[in-house]
Amino acid sequence: DVQPRPRRPHWFERYGQPCVAELLGAALFIFIGCLSVVEQSEGTGRLQPALAHGLALAIVVAVLGEI
């Protein structure tokens, strides 16, 4: 039996997608983190930015982790 050769990935799949995913993930992470500290009220302390960054990181990994 002759097995077919595996398909070579397109240049965009190999180089473009990871760069776009990294750019989008970093932008989302920074944007969410900055939005979490825009309104600095008295009772939030350090917990709100920490939770916002953790949630943003979890979302980025879940959505873009395959790439």
UniProtKB/TrEMBL annotation:
Subcellular location(s): the record lists: Membrane
SUPFAM superfamilies assigned: Aquaporin-like
| Transmembrane helix listed as a keyword | yes
Q: Which InterPro entries match?
A: Aquaporin-like, Aquaporin_8, MIP
Positions of transmembrane segments: 20-38, 50-66
Keywords in alphabetical order: Membrane, Transmembrane, Transmembrane helix
The yes or no answer to whether the keyword Membrane is present is: yes
List the Gene Ontology MF annotations in alphabetical order: channel activity
Protein name as annotated = AQP8 protein
- The species this protein belongs to is Rhinopomastus cyanomelas
